[in-house]
Write a structure and sequence with these properties.
The chain is an alpha+beta fold and 363 residues long. Helices cover 42% and strands 15% of the residues. The structure holds iron/sulfur cluster.
Length: 363
């Protein structure tokens, strides 16, 4: 439990430091709730340096809520391509439509209304309400939890959801209710540039005098983390099926991982199954087509948050059959040059340049 005078001192030091040292970021130059919302959705699971170029590109294409709400989802996903966690883009698009219809295009400034929108959890709601509308809601993200764990020597693991209320209560207690937006941004900024996961820069930290971990020389002990399970690796095989100079791509179902994106058909290998067998079997199961393998193009590796994949890519020829989809929701036979117009997962992008080189004018 912090004393009132300590809370006031922490708030003052934090804001002074933020005023002097904050990075100049485009979403800090605007009071437009739409732009702030977009930035917070992008920042939720992605680093600032990655978000910067996407933010600009996204807002050039969808400069206001109405343009996003009326856009085709495929264009939204294409603009988001490479940023990952595509549910964020789908939810943002759906939420923009709801705001346009149900709130006359104005992003709701009420916690309960905002939380009704797809993809708006506690973090996004608190960030938008505090930064865009100056309402007293504390944000709790990974940076904030780390700072709080060290500052207050909180033993609860930061990566274990049941302990989230401990960090939320601490953040609430510390919140500067007169300037909640600046306070929240300052705390997140401190976590990002000073109180970093490894080697925090305590000698430059404005909160050093209040930091319990620093005073007890226990900074290395915080934040505590619950041991996570090792990340599994799956073996995948996919086929680039060629028919009359065109390639087959299929669209993933709109929900779930990479929902709505287009890819080459294929799937997970069974135990001890050869990759080429997986490729032929998966294409048959997903499309009912019979194909034959022409050659092995390459193997690529890709890491998602909770698993990794090792993917063998084969170039195949169509043999027989009519497409009947099971799993994917749509398909296209396209020219290779048209690939760039579809939103495609990053793992597929890893071999597309080689595919273009190898197929050349064949497709
Ligand atoms: Fe983090 Fe060090 Fe500052 Fe404490 S003194 S909040 S550990 S940077």
């Amino acid at each position: 439990m912090l004393k009132k005078k300590d809370i006031t001192s922490i708030q003052r030091r934090l804001l002074r430091w933020f005023g002097d040292h904050q990075r100049s970021l485009p979403w800090r130059q605007t009071a437009d709730p739409y732009r702030i919302w977009v930035s917070e959705v992008m920042l939720q699971q992605t680093q600032v340096k990655t978000v910067l170029s996407y933010y600009e590109k996204f807002l050039n294409r969808f400069p206001d809520l109405k343009s996003l709400a009326r856009a085709d989802l495929q264009h939204v996903l294409k603009t988001w391509e490479g940023l990952g966690y595509y549910a964020r883009a789908r939810n943002l698009h759906r939420a923009a439509g709801i705001v346009l219809e149900a709130h006359a295009g104005n992003i709701p400034a009420v916690w309960e209304d905002l939380k009704q929108l797809p993809g708006v959890g506690d973090y996004i709601a608190a960030a938008v309400l505090s930064i865009a509308f100056d309402q007293p809601y504390a944000v709790v993200d990974g940076n904030v939890k780390r700072v709080l764990a060290r500052l207050l020597r909180i033993d609860a693991p930061v990566n274990y959801q049941p302990f989230y209320p401990i960090f939320r209560d601490a953040a609430d207690e510390l919140l500067n209710t007169r300037r909640p937006g600046a306070h929240n941004q300052a705390l997140m900024e401190l976590g990002a540039v000073i109180c970093k996961p490894r080697r925090p820069d305590c000698l430059q930290c404005p909160l050093q005098n209040h930091c319990l971990a620093f005073q007890e020389a226990e900074v290395g002990k915080y934040p505590q983390r619950k041991k996570s399970r090792p990340i599994p690796e799956f073996h995948i095989a996919v086929g680039v099926v060629l028919r009359d100079g065109r390639l087959l791509i299929t669209q993933r179902s709109p929900n779930g991982l990479l929902g709505g994106l287009w890819e080459f058909p294929g799937g997970k290998a069974r135990l001890k199954e050869l990759p080429q067998t997986t490729c032929i079997r998966e294409i048959k199961e997903e499309t009912t087509l019979t194909v034959s393998i022409d050659f092995h193009l390459t193997q690529v590796k890709h890491a998602y948050t909770h698993f990794k994949i090792k993917m063998d890519v084969f170039c195949c020829s169509y043999v027989k059959g009519q497409i009947k989809l099971k799993g994917p929701v749509d398909y296209r036979w396209i020219r290779i040059g048209d690939l760039d117009t579809y939103p495609i997962p990053k793992a597929n992008h890893k071999f597309i340049p080689l595919l273009k080189q190898r197929l050349g004018s064949a497709a």
